[in-house]
Design goal:
This protein is mostly helical and 166 residues long. The protein has seven helices and two strands, in the order ααααααββα. InterPro entries: Homeodomain-like_sf, WH-like_DNA-bd_sf.
Length: 166
C-alpha cells in the first residue's frame, strides 16, 4: 500500500472491498491493517458515511483527574509569595486552605516546573531540582561537586594493593 492517497480514501476502498465480498483477511493483508480495524471502519461507514472514515483525534473527551485552573493559579501565587516553599510545603498549605481534592506533591512539582518556577539542574550522573534564583542551592551543588572531584582524585592517588600493616 505505497500510494499517496489520503487515509480516508484508503479506508473507503478497503470498506468497499469488504462490502463487495472480498475476504476480510485478504483485504487486511493488502492494506496492512488489522481485521479489527476493518470491522471498525465498516461500522463507522455504515453509521456515519464517508465522514466516519476521517482521521479522529485520540485526545480524551475529558480529563476528570486534571488539576483545576484555580488550584494551579493558587499554587503559583503561593510560590510567588513564598519562593522558598517546595512542593511538599505547598501541598500542606493547600490542605490548610481546604482544597479538595488535594493534589499530590508530584503534581504540585509539575505545576511549578510547567510555570518555570523551578529549574532542573544537572550535575554529573544524578540530577536534582533547585529553585530558580536560589543562590544557596547553587553554592551547595558546587561544593558537592568539588567534594566528589577531590574524593575521586584521592582515590586515584591511593595505592592499589596496600601492604598488610602487621
Amino acid at each position: 500500500m505505497a500510494d499517496t492517497t489520503s487515509s480516508a480514501e484508503q479506508r473507503l476502498r478497503a470498506v468497499q472491498e469488504m462490502l463487495a465480498g472480498e475476504p476480510v483477511a485478504e483485504v487486511s493483508r493488502r492494506y496492512e491493517v488489522s481485521r479489527q480495524s476493518l470491522y471498525r471502519w465498516r461500522s463507522r461507514y455504515e453509521k456515519e458515511g464517508l465522514a466516519g472514515l476521517q482521521a479522529r483525534s485520540r485526545r480524551p473527551h475529558s480529563s476528570p483527574g486534571r488539576l483545576r485552573g484555580s488550584v494551579e493559579s493558587l499554587i503559583c501565587a503561593l510560590r510567588a509569595e513564598q519562593p522558598g516553599w517546595g512542593s511538599r510545603r505547598l501541598v500542606t498549605e493547600l490542605a490548610r486552605r481546604g482544597i479538595v481534592p488535594l493534589p499530590s506533591h508530584s503534581t504540585v512539582h509539575r505545576v511549578l516546573v510547567r510555570n518555570e518556577l523551578i529549574a532542573k539542574v544537572r550535575d554529573g550522573a544524578a540530577s536534582h531540582w533547585a529553585e530558580a534564583g536560589d543562590e544557596r542551592d547553587r553554592r551547595i551543588a558546587r561544593l558537592e561537586e568539588e567534594v566528589r572531584r577531590l574524593t575521586a582524585r584521592l582515590d586515584s592517588a591511593a595505592p592499589r594493593d596496600p601492604a598488610p600493616c602487621h
